[in-house]
Amino acid sequence: MYKILITGSIHQIGLEILRKEKDIEIQYAPDLAFAEIFKIIAPFHCILSRSETPVTRELIDEAPNLKVIARAAVGIGNIDVNYATEKGILVINTPGKNTNSAAELTIGLLLSAIRKIIPAHSHMSKLKWDRHIFTGMELLGKTIGIIGLGNVGHRVARYAKAFEMEVLAYDPYIAEEVFERYHAEKCTLEELISSADIITLHVPKTEETTGMIGAEEFSRMKSGVVILNTARGGIIQEKPLLEELKSGRVAAAGIDTWEVEPPKHNPFRDLPQVVMSPHVGASTTEAQKRIAESIAT
Prior knowledge:
Number of helices: 12
Helix content: 25-40%
Strand content: 15-25%
Radius of gyration: 21 Å
CATH architecture of the largest domain: 3-Layer(aba) Sandwich
Structural class: alpha/beta
CATH topology of the largest domain: Rossmann fold
Largest sheet: 7 strands, parallel
């Protein structure tokens, strides 16, 4: 009997697929504390989790029967992939299944930020009606700079074109024809940073991309730029971003991913020009269904 430990909540369709297999036994424990996983993991052949469960060297050492680490998400940053590979353990994830959800969230954060929807809502909740303080800006004719033209990035490019925006993109790993297909002007990172009215990040978190947007990059941006990050926390350095938001050089920001999740002390919460969400890029019913189907089959 092949035993699977599921430590994160997945869509019901994924559970149904697994339960139909006669030679598979599953233990569904989405709320299991990390310390408790150590105590029970030994007999399991597979651990299926979402991003909340780190799969560390120490945990792997407690799992002598482990053959597969399955991540019901895109990111595998908190899995010790190198050590798992050394031990002959296969690591799988679900790339591309949350593409649409993450791209739509990006546009949602953008519209909310530039039209000041959240402070306007809060204002009306207090029975106020001062419309003039919520003057925003349009997307028509603005230049959006997309850092990373992969699955999510090129979907954002398509949406931006629907708003009649000019699209710049930087991605040294994507073929020229992808830029052409999505009508994105290929440029260097320096050109993008200095030219875009809106900058949005859609790159994986690697040694190369960690901290890639910091004080030096902000100093070269247009005054009044809008910053979006629905990729991974730590790609944008939060301290200089906070300083630029307070100074007004960065006019607004939409942030879904954070250097530390959850943030222990979040100074962005006091800034009305910042729209925040708790890493919900993949949190739609449709995306979770696709993820569950993919990881279970």
